[in-house]
From TrEMBL:
Residues 48-145 form the Methyltransferase type domain. GO terms for molecular function: S-adenosylmethionine-dependent methyltransferase activity. This is Methyltransferase domain-containing protein. Gene3D superfamilies: Vaccinia Virus protein VP39 (3.40.50.150). GO terms for biological process: methylation. CDD domains: AdoMet_MTases. InterPro entries: Methyltransf_11 (IPR013216), SAM-dependent_MTases_sf (IPR029063). The keyword Methyltransferase applies. It comes from Devosia marina. Keywords: Methyltransferase, Transferase. It holds the Pfam family Methyltransf_11. It comes from the Bacteria.
Length: 205
C-alpha cells in the first residue's frame, strides 16, 4: 500500500482540520458543475465522485435534481462530514474504499475525479485505476478528470503527485476516450495563494 492509499493519513486530515482549512475546499465547485452540464446528462444520470471526501459537489448536484449519486472516498470521517450536512433521505450512496480495488454496484454516466488520480505516481496504479473507471463507465459516458497542471504543485499534503496537461492526460487515458474539453483553473487556497489545475472532459468511445 502506498502512502496515497493510506486511509489513516486522510482520516487524520479530516479529523484535525475544518472543511474550509483544507486546500481543496470549494464552497461551490463551479468548474465541475459547468463541465457536468456540458455533458448534457439528465438528472436521472448516474454520477460517481471519486475521492469526493467532504466536497460540496454532492450538495450542488442534489440542488440541481440529480438523484443517482455515489461518493467514494478513503476517509470515513470525510464522508460522515458530508452526510451530516444533508438530509438523511438523500439519494446518495456513500462508499468508503480505495478506488483501485473498487467494484461498483452499478455503472455510471459520469465519472468525476479531482482528488485521486494525480496521487497515483506509479504506472501500475494508474493502469488499475483506469481499468476500474473503464468498467464503471457506460459506453458514451463521460470522465471528468481534474489534476494538478504542469505548472501546479509537485506535492500535496506531503505526497508526490503526477501533473498533466491535455496531451499527457489524453495519452494516459488512451484511444478509448475522446477529449471533449480541456481547461486550466487557478484554485485559491486558504493561505493567500493558488494551485493550478488542469481539467479534462472525455467521452468514452
Amino acid at each position: 500500500m502506498t502512502m496515497s492509499e493510506d486511509p489513516n493519513r486522510w482520516e487524520d486530515v479530516y479529523r484535525n482540520k475544518e472543511e474550509a482549512e483544507t486546500s481543496w475546499h470549494e464552497a461551490r465547485p463551479k468548474v465541475l458543475l459547468d463541465l457536468i452540464a456540458e455533458t448534457g446528462v439528465r438528472t436521472d444520470a448516474a454520477i460517481v465522485d471519486v475521492g469526493g471526501g467532504s466536497s460540496r459537489l454532492v450538495d450542488c448536484l442534489l440542488e440541481q435534481g440529480f438523484r443517482r449519486i455515489t461518493v467514494l472516498d478513503l476517509s470515513e470521517t470525510a464522508l460522515a462530514k458530508a452526510r451530516a450536512r444533508l438530509p438523511k433521505d438523500v439519494p446518495v450512496e456513500w462508499v468508503v474504499g480505495n478506488v483501485l480495488h473498487s467494484k461498483p454496484s452499478g455503472r455510471f454516466d459520469i465519472w468525476h475525479d479531482r482528488a485521486a488520480f494525480h496521487f497515483l505516481t506509479d504506472a501500475a496504479d494508474q493502469e488499475s485505476y483506469l481499468r476500474v473507471m473503464d468498467r464503471a463507465l457506460v459506453p458514451g459516458g463521460h470522465a471528468i478528470i481534474g489534476t494538478f497542471a504542469l505548472d501546479g504543485p509537485s506535492t500535496c499534503s506531503g505526497l508526490p503527485v503526477a501533473r498533466y496537461d491535455a496531451a499527457r492526460l489524453s495519452e494516459r487515458l488512451g484511444d478509448g476516450y475522446r477529449l471533449i474539453r480541456t481547461l486550466n483553473h487557478e484554485h485559491p487556497i486558504p493561505w493567500d495563494s493558488v494551485q493550478r489545475f488542469h481539467f479534462g472532459l472525455f467521452r468514452k468511445v
